[in-house]
Amino acid sequence: MPTNLPSPIRESKLSQVSQFRAYLVALRPQQWTKNLIVFAAPLFAFNLSVSSLTGSLIAFAVFCATSSSFYLFNDILDVEADRQHPVKQYRPIAAGLVKIPIALSMSIVLLLGALLIAWLRSPQLGVVLLSYAALQVAYNARLKRMVILDIGAIAAGFVLRACAGGAATQIVVSPWFLLCTAMLALFLAVEKRKAELRLSQLQGTKPRAVLRRYSLAVLDRMENVVTTGTVMTYALWSSGPYFRGAPTAWMLLTLPFVLHGVFRYQLISDPQATEEQQSDRSERPEEVLLRDRAILVTVFGWALTCFTVLWFKQQQWIE
């Protein structure tokens, strides 16, 4: 920003930048990392092309728009409660930086625009996105307050994202793909609830109604089941054609990255596990993809290994 501008103009420019930032923050772009799973379908199918990349990018964009639409709508509904919360009171809508009528208009435009673009790309993608929107309505209206079903709803959202990647690229997803995605999604959902419950206990705050129905012992048992399911389904898929899984058994080379990622995720979603973690990160473990260096390296290593195996397979250097 030039400093030689007249003071009123400079203040106006700064105000515009601040207002734009408030609108952007209200969309919660840090949550968009959840939508990266739309790229999984072409990767698991070993179908990496300009067409599949374009379709995946469209699916990613419409899911980002849809999720931001519901974040805005939820913040409007919860504005009074958020203003009494020590952290949520700083959200743009609760803080008055984004007016409710503007936020509502943004929410409607984002949702309708995303549905229109998805339907124009592919009717299947439109149906998946509409199903996701319906799930969000059901979750916010009722499911998030129903024990076990709340975890299932969170996991279903990830599965729908993964299916959207297939719908946008005209790739038929396999049962193995759905199983791997479902197990990983349940793992993430359980870890989220477990982190929220632990943090509320550490801080001595009153947990939300649904969290009071859980205990750490129950969540530990659920975690054991879904962690085992996640690792086993991925290991069997990556074992190759013998199990009607990946096109080559060399995909087993990616299994160590999955194991490290799962264990690392468990570590950093536990506020008591290590001093290096901050409580605000532990409360929202789905955001670690952007903040934790070890997770970033693991994801990069997994993707690089997948691309290498795929290229070797295309060159017929491996079976």
Describe the protein's architecture and organization.
The chain has 13 helices and no strands. It is globular. The N terminus is likely disordered. 68% of the residues lie in helices and 0% in strands. The chain is mainly alpha-helical.
List the helices and strands and how they pair.
Blueprint: H1 7-26, H2 40-44, H3 50-77, H4 79-83, H5 100-121, H6 123-141, H7 149-169, H8 175-203, H9 216-238, H10 255-268, H11 279-283, H12 288-291, H13 293-314
- Number of DSSP helices? 13
What shape does the CA trace take?
globular
- What gap, in angstroms, lies between the N and C termini? 58 Å
Structural class category = mainly alpha
Rg, Å, rounded:
21 Å
Instruction: Summarize the helix and strand pattern as letters.
Output: HHHHHHHHHHHHH
Mean pLDDT: 86
Proportion of beta-strand residues: under 5%
Helix content: 55-70%
Which stretches are poorly predicted, pLDDT < 50 over at least 5 residues? 1-6, 9-14, 275-283
What kind of sheet is the major sheet?
A: none
Number of strands: 0
